[in-house]
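Quick check before the chapter quiz. The format below is the same one you will see on the exam, so make sure you can read both the input and the output lines.
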Amino acid sequence: NSAGRVSFLLAVGVWRGAGNSHGDNLGVDYDQLAATYEDRYKVDSLHGISDALLNLVDRCQPHRALEVGCGTGHWLRELRPQLAELYGVDASRRLLQAGDPGSANLAAALANSLPFRSRTFDLIFCVNAGHHFDRKHAVVNQAADLLQRPGALSITGIDPRLVRKWYFYEYFEGTHERGIRSFPAPGAPVNWMAGPELAGSQS
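Here is the expected output.
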């Protein structure tokens, strides 16, 4: 039962003070899945992730936020009532076109090549997409450059090491093993954030 799975925050970093590519290793053609992509939330709303994001927004009180790997804009819609400005990027143009992100500003871009100026956002978040990115450490470095001071980066995901039974793994042979290989090792996101500008992190 996927509704019983635990949604958890991999890492949150807060940058303060002065600051300081490559593509997305999708492994899946999300353009082909765009028409039915939103159906996943009918099976499992992942309310735990929604709660974690809303709590993060409540703690950080951001004005301008960016979701990297936003897909059809599901999480942007969840945060719409709480934020004045929302932006989303995804490598799949068809996912962006298929969604309804409300009044969020969308752009087709790779996670390691985001089309924004330094110090643009005070919150950058990624939900269940980080394992698709090439050079994940570089994504974190770019996020540090795009964040205002103070600013927060949130990377949220469901570790496949903790999910042994799921219809997706049973239906598509080898997906569980590939998921484990591409998912960051425990503690890795916190280590990526452990630069001189990072004031705090948690796993």
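If your answer matched, good. The CA atoms of residues 34 and 95 lie 5 Å apart.
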